[in-house]
Amino acid sequence: MILSDGDVFRVDASWLTPAPAKSAVPGGALAANLAQREKVIIEAALREAHGVIGGATGAAAKLGLPRQTLESKMRKLGIDRIASNRHSPRPTTVPARATPFSTPNFRRMPEITARISALNSGD
């Protein structure tokens, strides 16, 4: 329903042309800020995954992305997975100590013990 004070309905031109919405952040700055945040998050995930992209413990799984999507984002943002991994120390593994139980000769222990005893007793 349209109401008018007179016989003729008049429309003001300002009613028909909407003013463009002004954003608080310029468009280019918003996109750059988003890209920078995305890059920081991806690099952190790569460090946490020690440079591994795919697999159950890779950066893609940590981010909840398919591996191909993460690789595409990395190319777009100029992220090198090796360079991203340089800042985190790789986990060190301590070599297991050899014990009599871990050697193949463990099955022959009684035989070896008997020989040592025989050598020591002078038989």
Describe the structure.
- The structure is a single chain.
- The protein is mainly alpha-helical.
- The chain has a domain at 28-90.
- The chain has five helices and no strands.
- The protein has helices spanning 27-48, 59-63, 67-77, 81-85, 109-121.
- The N and C termini lie far apart (122 Å).
Task: Give descriptors for this structure.
123 residues, mainly alpha, 5 helices, 0% strand
Layout of helices and strands, plus pairs?
Elements: H1 27-48, H2 59-63, H3 67-77, H4 81-85, H5 109-121
Amino- and carboxy-terminal Cα gap: 122 Å
Name the beta content range: under 5%
Q: Supply Rg.
A: 36 Å
Query: What share of residues is helical?
Result: 40-55%
Instruction: Tally the helices.
Output: 5
For the report, how would you describe the main beta sheet? none
Anisotropy-based shape: rod-shaped
Element pattern in H and E: HHHHH
Going by helix content, strand content and strand pairing, the class is mainly alpha
Number of strands: 0
Mean pLDDT: 77
The residue ranges in which pLDDT falls below 50 over 5 or more consecutive positions are none
